[in-house]
Each structure stands twice: as C-alpha cells, then as structure tokens.
Amino acid sequence: PMATSVAAALNAGLEEKGKLLTCQRIGCDAKYTEDDNPEGCCRYHPGAPLFHDGRKEWSCCKARSHDFGEFMSLPGCTVGRHSQDKPQKPAPSPNNNPVAKPIEPGFKIQGSGTAVKIQGSGSASSAASSDLDAAKANCPRCKQGFFCSDHQGPPAIKVAGVMAQTAKPKPKVAEVGPDVEQTCKNKGCGLKYKENENHNNACKYHPGPPLFHDRKKGWKCCDVHVDDFDKFLSIPPCTTGRHNANAEG
C-alpha cells in the first residue's frame, strides 16, 4: 500500500508537470508547461496599470498610451519565467476615499477643495448646478478627467439650433496590402490578422469605452463592472464583427 501511494503521487506529479498552463503575469498570458519554462521566456509588466486624465500608463516602465487597445499591447518591460502567481494588488491608501464634509447651502467646492459662495444661489438652476459641481468635486473619477456615468457632463451647447460639436481630425489611415499582418485595435481583441482572411465574425470585441469609477472597472457597452483589473481584462467581449486595425481608442 505504501509503494502504491508513492507511485500514485509520482504519477500525479508527472501529469501536473506536463499540464498546459496559462501564465498569470500581466502582459504575458502565454501557454506553457512546467518542464518547458526556462528563464527569460516570459515578458511581462511587474507594475500596476495607472489611469489618469484619459491616459493609461504602466507604473513599472512608464510606457503609456491614450488608446486602450494600444496600451494593452505595449510589450512587457521585464523578463523571467512564467508563473501561476497572480500579481499582488497594492494596499489601498487610507486617503484614497476621504469622507466628504457636508457643504453649506449657497456654497460649492472648487477643484482645490476650497468652499466658495455661489453667486445667485437663490435660483433653482444655480442650486442644481452647484449640487452637480459639488458632487463632481468630491468624485475622484471626475477630478481626474475620466468619463463618469454618475455625474454626466453638461449637454453640448446649441448654436443657431444646431448642436455644437468639437471637430476631431481623423488620423490618416495607412494603406496596406491584403496579405500584410496587422493588429486589431478593437477594444478587447488585439489579435493579429490579415485583411484577406477578415470577415464579419472574425473579431470579438467591446464597442463601448472602458469605465473606471470608484475602483470599479467595466465596459459601458455591456454594463459589466468588476473591482479587480485581472477580472476586468477577462470580461468576455459582447460584440462580433470584423477586425479593425484603425479603430479609435
């Protein structure tokens, strides 16, 4: 019985050693086995992602981008062995979510945190505007310039009955051959493809922008929100379509 138990344990160890695993390091996700995991085969980001003023940045190497798909495809800055150990989450700072002090009627909080008296605070419109300003001033997401579903910005200004739009110049699209390998920029995809193999069901992606609010990460398109960045990256795409190497971030 003792010899049988030892043999079973050795067989189980050999099976586990040859098992195909997925690397848990951020920026890698490669498949590997424990018996084929040499030093230097893994390229990853040891630092946490940072999101500020619409900019995405890796804390470890300061590589940054405003485009989410491009940010996720930034190559890792550190090499080592593949690992099943998930990156440790940084301990939350005790000052990350300060308790908001009550605001006296007729006052609002500026971006610097100073309370100032509202001009014409007797009108209903001024009071509503001041409430929105105060809420934005105490919202970490709004203060950093991110889109916030809880505190929508003011509607676009109407000019002569027409909605005023800020014209954003479209980047020039480089012409490439149908058999040239490209990287899909659709959010949540990032796969390599060739245009002559592209079709309407080739890509699974998120058409909506990513939302980051009060430590919650999610997608506006499918209204899925989580509190962990790894879980956010694993939210399944909600839309199927063609790969697009020129998708806007």
Describe the model:
This protein starts with a helix and ends in an 8-residue tail after the last strand. The longest helix is centred in the first third of the chain and has 16 residues, at 2-17. Helix content is 18%, strand content 21%. It is α+β, with helices and mostly antiparallel strands. The strands form 8 sheets. Strands 4-5-6 form a 3-stranded antiparallel sheet. Strands 15-16-17 form a 3-stranded antiparallel sheet. A two-stranded antiparallel ribbon has the order 1-2. The protein has helices at residues 2-17, 68-72, 124-137, 140-143, 229-233, and strands spanning 21-22, 31-32, 42-44, 49-52, 55-58, 64-65, 78-80, 107-109, 115-117, 158-159, 162-163, 181-183, 192-194, 203-205, 210-213, 216-219, 224-226, 239-241.
Q: Could you name the key traits of this structure?
A:
single chain, 249 residues, alpha+beta, three-stranded antiparallel sheet, 5 helices, 18 strands, globular
Layout of strands and helices, then pairs:
Elements: H1 2-17, E1 21-22, E2 31-32, E3 42-44, E4 49-52, E5 55-58, E6 64-65, H2 68-72, E7 78-80, E8 107-109, E9 115-117, H3 124-137, H4 140-143, E10 158-159, E11 162-163, E12 181-183, E13 192-194, E14 203-205, E15 210-213, E16 216-219, E17 224-226, H5 229-233, E18 239-241
Antiparallel strand pairs: 1-2, 3-7, 4-5, 5-6, 8-9, 10-11, 12-13, 14-18, 15-16, 16-17
Summarize the structure.
The chain has 249 residues and is α+β, with helices and mostly antiparallel strands. Helices cover 18% and strands 21% of the residues. The strands form eight sheets. A three-stranded antiparallel beta sheet has the order 4-5-6. Strands 15-16-17 form a three-stranded antiparallel beta sheet.
